[in-house]
Amino acid sequence: MPDKPPCAPVLLSELRDGFDFATMGSDFGNEAYVNSKTGAVIVLSDEVEMDTRPDDLKKPGRYIALPSKSELDLGRELVLAFAAETMPEEHDHITAMFRRRGAFGQFKDLLRLRGQLESWHEYESRATDEALKRWCAENDIPLR
Fold first, then answer.
1. How, if at all, do strands 63-65 and 41-44 pair?
2. Strands 63-65 vs 31-35: parallel, antiparallel or unpaired
3. Contact 9/143 with Cβ under 8 angstroms?
4. Residue 119: inside a domain, yes or no?
């Protein structure tokens, strides 16, 4: 079996923008891909009129779908790590929150109440960038 051709380098900022677009609008059919030949990140949506879908989107090896938050462990696990580091007195309460529906909304309400919302956003942003870098390394996608 021949080796797959190397992927063109990708800008982390473009990767992050595509990831954010896809994860924020996953209920609306938002998707993001890396074009392995050019390194460009393309975004697609079922709900928003955008450029046309590339004809070769399904061609093996041409486009690499960006992962979801859950694939990168950026959901509940990240919240609990943040709680353990910055709000240990609330850790049990937050853990219990995430056993029910609506947990993220309740979590953000608690962060607002405790003045920790900005700290959470910074923590989540750093963790997302690190997870995307690891994903690129695991998928032989060079960053530039």
1. unpaired
2. antiparallel
3. yes
4. yes
What is the pTM assigned to this prediction?
A: 0.86
**Local structure of residue 11 (DSSP, 8 states):** -
Q: Are residues 30 and 60 in the same domain?
A: yes
CB 117, CB 79: distance < 8 Å: no
Neighbours of 141 (CB within 10 A): 20
Is residue 92 within 8 Å of 59, Cβ to Cβ?
no
Q: What local confidence, expressed as pLDDT, does residue 1 receive?
A: 46
Residues 11 and 59 both lie in one domain: yes
Same domain, 4 and 59: yes
pLDDT tens for each residue of 38-71: 999 999 887 766 666 777 777 777 899 999 999 9
Q: Which domain holds residue 62?
A: 1-66
Residues 41 and 99 in one domain: no
Largest CA distance in the chain: 57
Provide the number of structural domains found in the chain.
2
- Integer Rg of the chain from CA: 18
